Structure formats: structure tokens, C-alpha cells
TrEMBL record:
Residues 2-90 form the Transposase IS701-like DDE domain. This is Transposase IS701-like DDE domain-containing protein. Signal peptide: none annotated. It comes from the Bacteria. It holds the Pfam family DDE_5.
Amino acid sequence: MNQSPWDQLPVRRRIAQRLCQAISSEVWVVDDVSFPKCGTASVGVARQCCGAVGERADYQVAVNVRAATDAASCPLDWHVHLPREWTDNPDR
């Protein structure tokens, strides 16, 4: 979706509407997911702590909102978190 010529917002909205209806969500969950990376070429990669692993390393972090029940969950929205060293660096 990140390289598509069309606006992704309407698609994300439609996915969220259909999935929320399908699972009859009871709660929304805000969570982060860390992806270990080698090097810093991927957007948002920085040396940071991963709670699940409990150590500092090069990670890319995505923040997401999910609709959930006790039996299922589905993504509603998601974004890559940009650490300060990315947002404060005009060359990035």
C-alpha cells in the first residue's frame, strides 16, 4: 500500500468497517510491534529497547490499533513510529 498511486485511507476505513462488523469487537487495543533490523536503511530503524526481548538493538517499531474480542482481533490502523533521531534529522 505504501507505493500505491491511490489514497489508502478509504481502503483502510473499509477494511476496519468490515472487520469490526465481522467480529463484533468489544474493545480497541493500542499496541506496538518491534521488528528487529540489521542496519538502518529501513524507515524508522534506530537503536531502541524492545520490551518483548528486553534489550536494546536496531528495531523498526509499528504502532497499531486493533478491534478485539476474546476470540479474535483485527488491525484497524497502523503506522511506523519515527524515533527522535529520525524526526530531528533533516537529511532523512
